[in-house]
Specification:
This protein has eleven helices and 14 strands. The protein is of the alpha/beta class and about 400 residues long. It folds into two domains: about 120 residues, Aminopeptidase; about 250 residues, Vaccinia Virus protein VP39 (Rossmann fold), CATH 3.40.50.150. Strand 8, helix 6 and strand 9 form a beta-alpha-beta unit.
Length: about 400
């Protein structure tokens, strides 16, 4: 019979226990990785850090700590951002963690974590909360100089402030009946479902896909609120698996630049019916002609110099060569729109843009918000309009692919 000695575990014993458990886990999930990191100050003192690891597509944060004299400086957010970025690079799609009510539930909720469980009370009067967050950060070399952005972080603002498109914006679709009764429409990069909700009364049956789970949650909530039956699914446009000939029309509003066109073009050709239309829509403010837009844009750039969504001028939508074998350009339009705002709604619209809410840490978003509100109070009346341009391109599906 084996003899055992039970004793308090020291650092070495704790390391052995963790190593043993992780070795056991690797028998079932071989794809694992360590995400732990430590932060030291100029004197070499450890002032923060995180014990975290990854198993397959799941990252788990066991401990995150910041020294008391460094709290409130944004260090905790920086640590978590680095852990999330490292997890995403290793292939993780979700982060899970837990915290007590006297620790940091508000901190995690501000950073996009969703409470998935709770024990209340757990320790004395305090609750024990469990959180999860889907990792949807995108890094594209041709956008924002490769700086990551995550639309899920801006979903609440997006849902509230991005339903700004006037009916004239959709005219190239509505006057052709592309979303009319009897038609099936696939909205790619649907976000919070702005396009299918705006055109729902046209009579089509809409399906919307987006890779950000929080965007899809918001889309479903808004559609349910308004009694709209729209099929929202969490998927990247390039990964859609709908059967051949499923849709009469496909749309992409404000998202065309994010696609992997070489992958999407043949897949979309297959999913559209013969003669199907792919409608690409885009609307942007004109900072060189509208003074409010110009000064708001300048403030974005002061907070996020990497943002490349600036300096817009009127231009048709550029169609990559990847679509040539599969689609033919049927129509292109560029036209001006004046979009009405209040100070509050314009501030929300700007905060919900890629350069602010989807890219900046929450603390920096709050700082931007204060500065932008003060700017608008100084330069804008309570109600005003902002000059935009709209660009719409319609691509018709070729009957057969051309070499």
């Amino acid at each position: 019979m084996r003899q055992y000695v039970f004793q308090p575990a020291g650092e070495a014993e704790n390391d052995a226990i963790h190593a043993g458990l992780r070795a056991y886990n690797r028998k079932f999930v071989p794809d694992t990785g360590d995400l732990s990191l430590a932060v030291k100050d100029a004197d070499g003192r450890v002032v923060g850090g995180c014990d975290a690891f990854r198993m397959g597509e799941l990252a788990f944060v066991d401990v995150l700590w910041v020294a008391e004299d460094c709290r409130g400086t944004g260090l905790g957010g920086c640590i978590l951002d680095q852990v999330e970025a490292a997890a995403a690079r290793q292939g993780a799609r979700r982060v899970e963690l837990n915290t007590f009510s006297f620790q940091a539930p508000g901190f995690y909720e501000k950073r996009g974590y969703r409470r998935v469980g709770a024990l209340e009370p757990a320790v004395g009067e305090y609750g024990h909360f469990f959180y999860a967050k889907e990792l949807c950060a995108v890094e594209l070399p041709h956008i924002d100089h490769g700086r990551p952005f995550d639309w899920g972080r801006a979903s609440a603002d997006y849902a509230r402030w991005r339903d700004i498109y006037p009916p004239e914006f959709f005219r190239p679709l509505t006057e052709r009946g592309l979303c009319g009764p009897g038609r099936k429409v696939l909205d790619l990069g649907t976000g919070t479902g702005v396009l299918p909700r705006a055109l729902y009364r046209q009579g089509a049956r809409f399906t919307g896909v987006d890779p950000a789970p929080e965007q899809i949650r918001q889309a479903r909530a808004l559609a349910n609120r308004d009694g709209m039956e729209i099929d929202f699914r969490c998927s990247a446009a390039e990964d859609c698996g709908f059967p051949d000939g499923s849709f009469d029309t496909a749309t992409a509003c404000q998202c065309f630049t994010y696609f992997d066109h070489a992958r999407l073009a043949p897949r979309l050709h297959r999913m559209l019916k013969p003669g199907g239309i792919f409608a690409v829509l885009y609307m942007a403010w004109l900072p060189g002609e509208d003074p409010v837009a110009g000064q708001s844009e300048a403030l974005i750039l002061r907070h996020n110099p990497a943002w490349t969504g600036c300096g817009e001028t009127r231009r048709p939508i550029a169609v990559p060569a990847d679509y040539g074998p599969w689609f033919a350009v049927e129509a292109q339009e560029v036209f001006d729109l004046r979009v009405p705002f209040t100070r509050e709604s314009w501030n929300g619209r700007i905060r919900a843009c890629r350069g602010v809410g989807a890219a900046l840490p929450p603390e920096e978003v709050e700082h931007f918000d204060r500065e932008h509100r003060a700017l608008l109070a100084a330069i804008a009346p309570e109600e005003f309009s902002v000059l935009h341009y709209a660009a719409v391109t319609l691509l018709r599906r070729r009957d057969r692919a051309e070499n």
